[in-house]
Structure formats: structure tokens, C-alpha cells
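Notebook entry, structure prediction.
Reason for the run: the old model in the group folder had no record of what sequence produced it. Starting over properly, with the input documented here first.
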Amino acid sequence: MSTTIDEQQTAEENTPPAGEKLQKVLARLGVASRRDSEQWIKDGRIKVNGLVAHLGMRVTRRDTISVDGETVKQDKETATLRRVILYNKPEGEVCTRRDPEGRPTVFERLPRLKSGRWINIGRLDINTTGLLIFTTDGELANRMMHPSNNMDREYAVRVRGEVTEEMIENLLKGVILEDGPAKFTDIQAAPEGDGFNRWFHCVVMEGRNREVRRLWESQGLVVSRLKRVRFGPVFLTSALSVGRWRELNQAEVDILSKECGLEPVQLPDLKPKLQKKVERQERRLSKPASPRRPQRKQGPGRPRDKR
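New structure, fully documented this time:
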């Protein structure tokens, strides 16, 4: 039986396009989150088979992908790797891989990877401390950061100024900031707090730039200390010292994956030498990290330069 032109066109229309979207592949390979990948594509930093990529492009394993001229490996091991670490960020570090001003970055303290890269799930500004989560799985990062998944963030904040009940009501109902409406979904005063400087725990549903600080500032108040203590189901505990990181074990990663609607992925088996190194790093977690200096070449015994 011969196939008509209409039947052939219908079959072509019903055939799914080959490959996956480029930003989804980059996220799955742990190169970057989907959001960052989309921005890199817009910036012209990504090429496919030597040509500058564009949004909506689909790729297969046969395609050669490069980021900033560096070829991205598409091996199966990298594509299914899902490691997660928690980091207690100190004040003074920035959440970029390289800082043009030479300031310390959060990535400098993280363990090195043989393939892929650590993707930060959300960011904190230079003066904010506390919980940062990193993963090698861009899809996990995307699920945790996307507003549709309702991953709330909890902060401990010290506010300078008199906080009235009317202010609290305003912040819970919502205020208009320069980038749109915003609000806290919960505000709890610390029981021991009183006076001009008081501690509060507050919760937001988004990760907009300096959102917590700007919300309090909208009421004429000043945030003197800000620390993230929770991101979704992940809490920062006192066992993790400032400037230290801890890798989640298989059970913890599986729970987090389930919360994000992802199937569990088996963590790789560590070689004995690497396992001992990880154990040594974990033993050091209980010790406070040494202060960071802006200049990397500066010796540990030299005084800081006065600026």
C-alpha cells in the first residue's frame, strides 16, 4: 500500500525532534544549571560542532559541544553523576568562579573534580553568610532553584532599628520593590532578642538579588547580619564550621532527589586513597577554617595590606 503525501507529512509532524535541548544536556552533564546555560548561549559562549549555538538548539551524543573553547565530555559516567555538598560560607567570599577584583571565591575551598564542575544552587552576596549547596547535577540544581518547586529559603537576620507589628504585617502581606512585589512567608522573632538590635528568622520563596535585605530596608530598617540557615529540606547545622564543606551521603542525596522529583542515582565508589582523603577532610570539619586573604600569594604570617 502506497503512502500519500498527506500521510507522510502527518508522520513527520508526529515524529519527535532528534536529540535534547542544549541547555538541558549541559545541566545533566553538570556543566551549569539550565538558567546559566541559557545565559551562556545568549552570550555566545557555547558552540556546537564549531558553530555558535542558539536557544532552542537540540544536540545528540554525536555532536561536539564546547564552552569557552573547552570541549565538554558527554560520557555516560559524567551524565549520571549526582554529588551534593553543603558549604558554610563566611563573610567576604563571592559566589563566582573568578573575581576580577581578586576577592576570595566560594569555589576555592571546594574539592576538585576530575570531570564536570560544581554548580552552586543559588547564591549569597559577599556580606551574607551561611548555607550554600553545590552539586554536579545541573538538573537537580534547576529543580531546586525553579520557583514552581516551592523551595523556600530561611534566614537568620539581625535588624537594627525598632521593629513594629505594623512592619511585620507589611512584610508578610507584601511590599513593592524596584523589581516587583515581594514578601516573607513567615517571620519569627528570636525569643532572647530585644532592644535596638534584634534577631529574626524569616522565610522567602524566591532567590532574588538581595531580596531579604531589601525587604527589611523597605521598612526603614538596616540589616546588620544575615545568614542563610535552610534551603528547602536542607538545614545548616552547628556541626559544619564556617568555611568548611560536607558531602551528603547516599541516603541524604536520595532524600533530596525525591524531594525534587528525581530518580535516585548511585554515588560512585571511591578508591581507598580518595576515601581516606575524604575522611581526613571530614575530620577537619569540626575545626574552624582559617581567615581568608584577598591576595593568594600573600604568606600566612604576613599582615594584611591596609586599603
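Summary: Residues 272-283 form the longest helix (12 residues).
The old model has been moved to the deprecated folder.
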